[in-house]
């Protein structure tokens, strides 16, 4: 079979594959003697006729193949297939290789003209700007507890280490702005930015010495030491998001994106006009798809929000007589807004994401507090201090709160200002919870997922101890953590991604587990940067918000209709305290169909997010999540929709006529009413407006952006669970058990009393049906721990190098097993 990537050379089979032949040079002798001119002309005409017929046959065959494959792999709109457009790009990109990131722009200022004195002066200006900001913060009042704005702030929690790094990033940004002003830098038309300049040396940096053992069996909590060439940055926590394409800032440095052709419509207007409410469900899939997606998303992304010096929230909708914080970027509410006008509200609170330090003059970057790897850091935490807080240090287990009736809940949070705990509930002895991620209480279903996996860790630790009674706490904890992370990754690639991308693209991109081929080659590539792309975190992977229905089915037996509104589940995990509370929450997610992935959103999302209640004594109106998502993309300098279409080798949408080939006419009409140019359309809006590809719930652009990120997470992780080399690998027998894992089996094993569940719990309907089955009939329910028994494996399982609390470990060379040290200097704070 040929396609657009077939080499334009001839090849013949050989014993070892194919041999490329030299270009056709013609016969050695033409028309040898003894052939008459007439016979010669007849043979020529016959040859020309055969060539013509052959050419027509080839063209006809190619057209048929194109039609067949466009139907099987193309979009529902009959447009070009994402799979073949990518393969047929000018760069001949292989389908199972990541897209190369757009090269960073060169420094726009004259390098020779920038002397040491200029750099020092700019840094001084940056430090002064930070000092002025902190003085301002001393006089500002934070958002009132339990208001929608405060709960939004709590849902984007920023840890103390991130706050220190953000201060450094702010100084770097202000220093770059100062340099640009003194050298009269002005942004050129289009998407140009100032580029990356010289290093910035800030005074009195705190230097942390990092030493890596690349033969360690277990991951480091912060994700460092995963890549030998880039041990501190590739995939680690507390590093800037990666840029798939260069940012588009209004000033080329840090100011949020603006229109290149007039003015950008306010984010709230885009939400109202394009992302209006709709109630079309996708009965093939359940809310469990969105719940697991959010849980897994929190494992790999955690954008740091700007806070005050002490970590308090910032109110950007202050009275006109008060000075506004420099990091404010509130969403404008128009006077005729159909919802907010009844509350006389003209401003939606929005604080910019914290700037990440880069150590160089250049454009603003944002900080990812999470590790990029699917390592279950959402369960354990991505800092050693957090992991230690959650451990019991007894038999490898996590701390749990045991109820009077013997059920295990997450450790309780008694902080009255955490945005979740409520006086009425604490009086009843019911609290919110602690977990590896500060966002665990954000909604009931998410909290249930956290509880499910924490229980699962303890189940794994108990079973490992039965197999190896002599193992100490540390060994049990680390081995259970390793298995759990592998199971979470397997569910992601075996159950979650094939739904989003479809089986065809998932298989073509190499994203399906190799469970039917335990001898598959190792896929690790140390050249691949697995760090999360900025556009993935700020736009593409926020697709799940369109899945959320307004009502959730909470009927215990599905015999009578019973539902709860979405906004009443936010920061409301208290039903988990009741008997079978986790069962009811999980079955709610498994029995409620999701909405379609499209441009439409529930009103619960667009006007009731974190809505207050009468008992809270705060405004009853909520926030608009769609407006916040669009505003976040502009805050991050995420370029427009056409830029990402070009980067993904998709047909361009640079004109309205071209865009009409990518989205339907009704959507295009809505977009044209408020956007002045296709070059202004936000990527979040454009990507959600595309019809899904065949067999997927994503359109072409979302398929490109999401598949590229998950391909990087697989190829760029030296601790990937399917690795075939190195001390990190599982044995074949262990990997065979990991491959049995399913989310349904995890639910059955760790719920209070669920005994029947769909085998594919993220789906309702699928080929061959998807009926409820007994938990005992699930293959993954019967996990065999014998492959982890040292009776079966007397060899040492590399338990060295995991001592708790150590800030350095030895580095062992694979080649000669002789110790050597890799030392890095990490600047933190100012």
Automatic annotation (TrEMBL):
The keyword Signal applies. Its EC number is 1.11.1.-. It is found in: Secreted. GO terms for molecular function: heme binding; metal ion binding; peroxidase activity. GO terms for biological process: cellular process involved in reproduction in multicellular organism; kynurenine metabolic process; ommochrome biosynthetic process; response to oxidative stress. It comes from the Eukaryota. GO terms for cellular component: extracellular region; lysosome. The chain crosses the membrane at residues 47-69. It is an enzyme of class 1 (oxidoreductase). Heme b binds at residue 545. Pfam families: An_peroxidase. Keywords: Heme, Iron, Membrane, Metal-binding, Oxidoreductase, Peroxidase, Secreted, Signal, Transmembrane, Transmembrane helix. The keyword Transferase does not apply. This is Cardinal.
